[in-house]
Amino acid sequence: MRNTSGNDHTLAVHAGEPDPKIEGALSIPIFQSSIFETYGAERYHDIKYIRLSNTPNHIAVHSKLAALERTDAAIVTASGMAAVSTVLLGLLSAGDHLLVQSSLYAGTQNLLTTDLLRLGITFDSVNVLDILDLQRKLKPNTKMLYVESIANPLLQIPDFSDLIAFAHENNLTAVIDNTFATPINFNPVCLGFDVVIHSCSKYLGGHSDLVAGAVVGKASVMETLYSTLTRIGASLNPIDCYLLHRSLKTLPLRIERQNRNAMEIAQWLETHPRVTNTTYPGLNSHPQHDKAQHYFRGYGGMVTFDLGGRVEAVDQFLAHLRLITIAPSLGGVESTITKPAATSHFCISAEERHRMGVTDTLLRMSVGIEQAEDIIADIDHALSML
């Protein structure tokens, strides 16, 4: 496989490409074979097999992801939650304890409160903006710190250097979900994180046509996680490996456009009289704007806002949108919007949602690559109908 140095654009196109090219093809073929001719394999994982995530399509996308995240290795999984499950089950055992960010993606929260507790793995939610809170909840059996680079859906941003220092001082594995920031805006391993998780169904895929996850990180932990993935059986199929590999080539272009669009839209929303609590890391009003400036190369494509606490107003607003699609997921080239309380955080109790700050009137918008003026015009039209 070809590897290369360079900026994100060059890495996205050339890193991990077959060298020499297969029959001269610029696009890697889809190797739709469940098993390959094998002779003389010295290890089990040397056997070419889809479940072992080592087909040519897997190897190509693994190499490209590792290059973009500036780290040693990567593996792709059947979904983002498969990636989360691989990390937590692969690095934790019965009796272990972990510290997790309080404003956490609800799917991860649900896994922790059901399956992991059942397996004897406990956790405490912490305010990652307050290192003292982490210190108070640290236990002798704490093994891991789990955070998100930009919290879903409240867009909080911690001081990553403080978190890494805390993790290293206490011999904790530092894990971060980097889905919202993407490797284009932020590379956590460069700061000292051990493991990075992505839901590739979002920005990395970017075209709303695949479900996948990824785990990337230091070689010291990736071999363990690769073995866990093969046992769980949550490998990605070759077609989706191909689609993800294809999408990564345009990731820098898409993210740069979404960064610009989201900033313009957030600035407009912040001044609209019918909108309250516009949250975007690029705004000066964001509580952690200084952290975003320090750590990120771009502020991302996610914007949240509220319409003043009236549930009926939110439903009326959504009903009048024409360009922006109401949809539960995010990160595609199309702009989408959702009520997290009714989608991503629907699986947790209303009491827990409100504790986290996920109100019934909070809206989360994933800004696409359309013309920013057209997105704003659609929002303006829907607001004028209230």
Determine the CATH topology of the largest domain: Aspartate Aminotransferase, domain 2
Distance between the termini: 56 Å
Helix content: 25-40%
Q: What is the name of the CATH class of the largest domain? A: Alpha Beta
State the major sheet.
Answer: 7 strands, mixed
Question: Averaging pLDDT over every residue, what do you get?
Answer: 93
Task: Report the portion of residues in β strands.
Answer: 5-15%
Describe the structure.
With 386 residues, the chain is of the alpha/beta class. It has two domains: 8-248, Type I PLP-dependent aspartate aminotransferase-like (Major domain) (Aspartate Aminotransferase, domain 2); 255-384, Aspartate Aminotransferase, domain 1, CATH 3.90.1150. 38% of the residues lie in helices and 15% in strands. The chain contains 14 helices and twelve strands. The protein has helices spanning 8-14, 56-68, 80-91, 106-118, 131-137, 160-169, 182-185, 219-232, 238-248, 251-270, 289-295, 311-319, 350-356, 372-384; strands at 73-77, 97-101, 122-126, 142-148, 173-177, 195-199, 213-217, 276-279, 302-306, 325-326, 336-338, 362-366. Strands 1-7-6-5-4-2-3 form a seven-stranded mixed sheet, with helices on both faces. Strands 8-9-12-11-10 form a five-stranded mixed sheet, covered by helices on one side. Helix 4 links the parallel strand 2 and strand 3 (122-126). Helix 2 (56-68) packs parallel to helix 9 (238-248). The protein is globular. The chain starts with 7 loop residues before the first helix and ends with a helix.
